[in-house]
Amino acid sequence: MATPAEHAAMRRALELAVRPDAPLGPNPRVGAVLLGPDGTTLAEGHHRGAGTPHAEVQALAAARARGHDPAGATMVVTLEPCSHHGRTPPCTGALREAGVARVVFALADPTPVAAGGAAVLAGAGVEVEGGLLAEQARATNLAWLRMVAAARPWVTWKFAATLDGRVAAPDGTSRWITSAQARADAHARRARADAVLVGTGTVRADDPTLTARDAEGLPLPRQPLRAVMGRSPVPPDAKVLDGAARTVLLDTRDPHEALARLAAHGVADVLLEGGPTLAAAFVRAGLVDEVLAYLAPALLGAGPAAVGDIGVATMAAAARLSTEQVTQVGPDLRVLARFLPEPTEGAK
């Protein structure tokens, strides 16, 4: 049974896992805290990306640098220690060599090549406990877990609309539906994505830059890959080709193919910002994991809706989502909702 000190250490490890320099792309976010036999924190560590030391190894190195001997200590880590030799040696070996007596982890590693670390450690006489704050750890790695389970990126469909669901007025104007505060919040989310995806229709109609910018319009330190999908040509003077960030043109209308090609670019987290037609294509294909909607307290009564035809003809067939978060941002509402899993056949 995990101790109060281990609970506190796991909460801290979860914070470390999502630090600004934590990896994006096809790598898990992992934090670790090394506790002494008396429950005090000896050192911390977190994974910074492919090829860099894993969180546990960083914590061990930090402890030694401070003059602490890890022998007899407890490693608290958000992901089961790996047991394979990839770009770096297995963490199980480092933990055994350091003489760590106990390992507490949150989430079991679902990857076939790296899983099994808990059994390896237990077989070496290390006390192991798994599952501590597992759901919180899962929430920090949704994109990575989607890549592992489905070999495709996590897709967040983001849009701004009025309370009656309009994304533009009848004359086509859409600037600005939401407030400056909501737009800044959306740009901060864009900066955390691996890629932002739109269709060629949006590029031709709106000529967006698709960069992540601050409230003054200046580029943020990290920029997502700009992805444009569709068969229509992109004008050579389009802003997405301005060199302000990397851009990839995906000459396909198939959402599955677009995501597969983005995955090949190392993309695990896609922010879908296309118009109603593209959004409908991804929803129909079952490829939207969550919806991020910024709703302005305004009414238009007419104009394009946020999404096109998704094949729903009756209320019983409506796509159902679970509301994860509702937050006021300036005068607007930010709603985060996730698609519910399809009901299992025969379920009541």
How would you describe this structure to a colleague?
The protein is α/β, with parallel strands linked by helices. Helices cover 27% and strands 22% of the residues. It has ten helices and 13 strands. It has helices spanning 4-17, 55-65, 91-98, 117-123, 134-139, 142-150, 180-192, 200-206, 255-264, 276-284; strands at residues 31-35, 41-46, 74-79, 102-107, 127-130, 154-162, 195-199, 225-229, 247-250, 269-272, 290-296, 321-329, 332-339. The strands form two sheets. An eight-stranded mixed β-sheet has the order 9-8-7-10-6-11-13-12, sandwiched between helices. A five-stranded mixed β-sheet has the order 2-1-3-4-5, with helices on both faces. α3 runs parallel beside α4 (117-123). The model is unreliable at 343-348 (pLDDT under 50).
